Amino acid sequence: MATYLFRRSGSSPAAEDGLADAVKAAIQEISDQGVLVQQSRGAIETADMDGGYVLLRIAGKVGWHYHQEALFRRHGIICSLYPGA
Questions:
Q1: Model confidence pLDDT, tens digit, residues 32-65
Q2: Which CATH class for the 2-81 domain?
Q3: Residue boundaries of the structural domains of the chain
Q4: Half-sphere exposure for 62 (CA within 13 Å, toward CB)
Q5: 39-55 burial, b if ≥16 CB within 10 A, otherwise e?
Q6: Confidence band of 12 (pLDDT split at 50, 70, 90)
Q7: Cβ(5)–Cβ(82) under 8 Å?
Q8: What whole-number distance in Å separates Cα of residue 19 and Cα of residue 32?
Q9: How many CB atoms lie within 10 A of CB 78?
């Protein structure tokens, strides 16, 4: 399992509202496609100087998150591999 970082793709502070819900909806949609193998039950929602973010541990096919950029955009989020894990 790897840890992924999700942020809002918008730059306004109001864009942080509902971030965890947007991540949950996107991950559910991807899971329904059979792309993800397993995800942890607990997401960590926090913030840094760049704004809010969600960390979630996920096991999936190699590079799965690169192929989901359009779906993430539709949900107003971006996803990247979290380097701190």
A1: 888 776 777 788 899 999 889 999 999 888 889 9
A2: alpha beta
A3: 2-81
A4: 0
A5: beeebeeeeeeeebbbb
A6: very low
A7: yes
A8: 20
A9: 15
